[in-house]
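For the sake of transparency, this paper describes our internal protein records without simplification. The remainder of this section carries one protein's record, kept here as part of the documentation:
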Amino acid sequence: MKSSILMALDIGSGTIKGVIGEKNLDTGIIEILALAEKPCLGIRNGEVVNPEQVSLGIMQVKEELYKSSGMKIKDVVVNIGGTHLFSVNSQGLISVARADQTISKEDVLRVKKEAEAVSLPSNKEVISIFPKEFIVDGEAGVKEPSGLRGIRLEVKVLLACIFSPIINNLEKAINLSGLNYLDSFITPIAVSQAVLSQEQKELGCCVLDIGFSVTSLAVFDKGDIVDFAVFPLGSSHITNDLAIGLRTEIQTAENIKKEFGTLKTVVKKSIGDKIKVTDGDIEFSKAFLKNVVESRVNEIFSEAQKALKKIMGQSQPPCGIVLTGGGSLLPGIVEFAKQKTKLPCRLGEIKNMKGVENPCFATCCGVLSLGFESMENDSGKMISNGKFGKKIKRILKAFLP
């Protein structure tokens, strides 16, 4: 059996998650060999702000993965997320180079490069490029123009951009941990890779990933990403509100949220309405807890609705919203989401992978899947995402006066 083995990391705000997976190159099935999750400092809103501290967390995850799998894998792919991640729509236009007017793969790469050449604010850079459609001599809706005949080739793309120090800090943290950084993928795309089918992407679907302190939204239609959004709200805000409201420690509030937090209907003054927690001698009502949880979740979905309306206007994704991330584990969140958005909603399930079901690992598994695809077609992936050129530029900067 031909197979490939790879490590993937999810650098989150509260924890670092890691997986080691093996892909059967004959069947395409990915089996998760080991899972690990460790708390980590040095990360704020999903972004590495202290590479030294983060490298220590990565090393802890790495050692646990080595211990669980019995393998020492050095190559790693990782997610890029956080509130500094943003999108830009762009277009590129070129004349077909060949005399016989046949569009070559080189023409496709050139038009993507042309679309990538946008003016960005200082210290911002393009990290990924996602073609939406090609236009050949005015004919739109072309997905693969190579081999077609034409004089003029256009492309409409979505560019993923980020504040440059964020990616520099991420790469530094990985290098300090002793791993070999192969590639990176933005969190909204990674999550979608893990939980969406091609049919859902084709018909139109939205993925809402509710993380620790950041929530991301990705919208797909006609098989491609339409746009994405990231906002600084997550499940940790519920914990913070509980800590303040109950005048207790953060860890105690987190335990209360995980054990008793719910969005399900609570009948006030019912038998057993009071909850008493021995840790800190805290007593509160179920209705109080539900109100705190509901207020923050309502805020998250309000922001998601604003982003969805900005992306799609009055249109709605026929396949509705798929929920994932740690925040999606709150009891009653699917029913709450249906009532709030008036759309079909369901919990995301990790697809085409054996050995993992926890939606908290959706980003990690998506990164792993994209990493395997990148390895299979390495040069094309790096050029199309614009990463290879960026890495070369960073290396050259070190030698410039």
Q: What stands out?
A: Residues 286-312 form the longest helix (27 residues). Residues 267-271, 379-401 have pLDDT under 50 and may be disordered. The first strand starts at residue 3 and ends at 11. Residues 254 and 304 are 24 Å apart (CA to CA).
